[in-house]
């Protein structure tokens, strides 16, 4: 077990953000489903990427990992019989995307995952939609969680599902592209729309035909085939939130590289929200840099966070340092992430003196004077990093337990923050 020890700090200089997790995982999957060789450059080497690589290998794709790239020989949409149980690890994307791809095959496949996947990440909307399209889709414990058993083949037709979580919708859109015929998807309560746009952008990139009617009705024209591709993964705008927030709450000036605000990642919306809160943030689209300037005064406001739901923990931290009250709304889906993020970030920040009221679908955060405390990550990378950032602005020592989960999106988090002047160190559990 490893932990972070964090002290109040002033940041300075220049840093960069890791590659996008969401793009990395989609790139691996689309390369595995394509025809011929694809090269994915500057991908995010993380446990989630490894889970996607192993899943695609079990489906028959040939994948070679090189120091800064992946070479993938695709299946041209023809799925092999999986030789083993597929383990999603801690990845919600692998949990939702791979069963839909398994359902393209007439053979049985099984997928499971870690404790969070088996108890925190519901999969019922996807299973019901797969059944509507002719597949067998069973939760082995009959509790709408993994492990699940899948058997196809999917048939062109019509399916209806909830869209509050975008991942099952994306999964079905991708799988439908390989079914012979036209498939129609009807989505109730569509949410997290930027992540759907991210998936549709991949379809556009690869020439896959579809229609999108206001995120509520899709027509996907199947039996697609596309050649391999050469792709460089952009920076992760959700990971950028942590150095940005750290600079803001410590009154520091910081430049961040590898920020492409033209990319469709939904989490870039947080940057515009922070500007509305009073942050002085300069964006240079030509050089793909972002600079946090000194002198901004953060003021609380009401934020509908559904389009950038992963920002809930770090926005909660920022709210503690903003004048007045910050209200986070339309965030119920945050309860179904790696942890129940509305509950976990509230519990842990309260240990540091935060004044937060937890609502069914959001949070109310008052300006608070934080003090160091012993807190827990709940094995959730965004909770761990958000608490570390909070510690940079708190009085005294903050200790965050169980930080191995941070490798999911920001493998060099501590080293990166040390390089810009932060007092963040990794210690073993035995040294507490």
Molecular structure report:
It contains 13 helices and 24 strands. The protein folds into 2 domains: 2-18 and 235-431, UDP-n-acetylglucosamine1-carboxyvinyl-transferase, Chain (Alpha-beta prism); 21-232, Enolpyruvate transferase domain (UDP-n-acetylglucosamine1-carboxyvinyl-transferase, Chain, Alpha-beta prism). The chain starts with a strand and ends with a strand. The model has no long low-confidence stretch (mean pLDDT 96). The protein is of the alpha/beta class.
Tell me the fraction of residues in β-strands, as a range: 15-25%
Based on Cα principal axes, name the global outline.
Answer: globular
Uncertain regions: pLDDT < 50 for 5+ in a row? Answer: none
Under the CATH scheme, which class of the largest domain?
A: Alpha Beta
Main β-sheet, in a few words?
A: 4 strands, mixed
Number of strands: 24
CATH topology of the largest domain: UDP-n-acetylglucosamine1-carboxyvinyl-transferase, Chain
């Amino acid at each position: 077990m490893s932990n972070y020890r964090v002290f109040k700090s002033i940041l300075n200089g220049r840093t960069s953000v890791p590659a996008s997790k969401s793009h990395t995982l989609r790139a691996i999957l689309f390369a595995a489903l394509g025809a011929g060789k694809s090269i994915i450059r500057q991908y995010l080497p993380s446990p989630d990427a490894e889970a996607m690589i192993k899943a695609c290998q079990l489906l028959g794709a040939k994948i070679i990992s090189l120091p800064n790239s992946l070479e993938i020989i695709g299946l041209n949409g023809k799925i092999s019989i999986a030789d083993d149980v597929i383990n999603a690890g801690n990845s919600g994307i692998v949990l939702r995307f791979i069963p839909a791809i398994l359902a393209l095959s007439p053979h049985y496949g099984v997928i499971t995952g870690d404790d969070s996947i088996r108890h925190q990440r519901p999969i019922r909307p996807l299973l019901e939609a797969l059944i509507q399209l002719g597949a067998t889709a069973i939760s082995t414990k009959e509790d709408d969680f993994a492990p699940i058993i899948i058997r196809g083949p999917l048939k062109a037709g019509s399916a209806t599902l909830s869209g509050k979580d975008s991942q099952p919708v994306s999964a079905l859109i991708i799988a439908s592209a390989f079914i012979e015929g036209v498939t129609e998807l009807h989505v109730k309560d569509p949410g997290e729309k930027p992540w759907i746009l991210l998936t549709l952008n991949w379809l556009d990139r690869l020439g896959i035909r579809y229609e999108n009617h206001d995120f509520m009705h899709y027509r996907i024209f199947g039996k697609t085939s596309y050649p391999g591709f050469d792709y460089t993964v952009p920076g992760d705008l959700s990971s950028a939130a942590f150095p940005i927030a750290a600079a803001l709450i410590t009154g520091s000036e910081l430049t961040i590289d590898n920020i492409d605000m033209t990319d469709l990642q939904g989490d870039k919306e947080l940057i515009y929200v922070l500007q509305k809160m009073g942050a002085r943030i300069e964006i240079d689209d030509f050089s793909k840099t972002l600079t946090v300037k000194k002198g901004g005064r953060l003021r609380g406001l009401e934020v509908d966070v559904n389009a950038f739901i992963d920002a809930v923990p770090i926005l909660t931290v920022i709210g503690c340092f903003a004048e007045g009250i910050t209200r986070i709304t339309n965030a119920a889906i945050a309860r179904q992430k790696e942890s129940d993020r509305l509950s976990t970030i509230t519990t842990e920040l309260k240990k540091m003196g935060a004044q937060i009221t937890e609502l069914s679908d959001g949070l109310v955060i008052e300006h608070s004077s934080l003090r160091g405390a012993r807190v827990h990550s709940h094995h959730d990378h965004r909770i761990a990093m958000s608490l570390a950032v909070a510690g940079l602005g708190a009085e005294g020592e903050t200790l965050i337990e169980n930080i191995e989960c941070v490798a999911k999106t920001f493998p060099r988090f501590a080293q990166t923050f040390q390089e810009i002047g932060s007092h963040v160190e990794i210690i073993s559990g035995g040294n507490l």
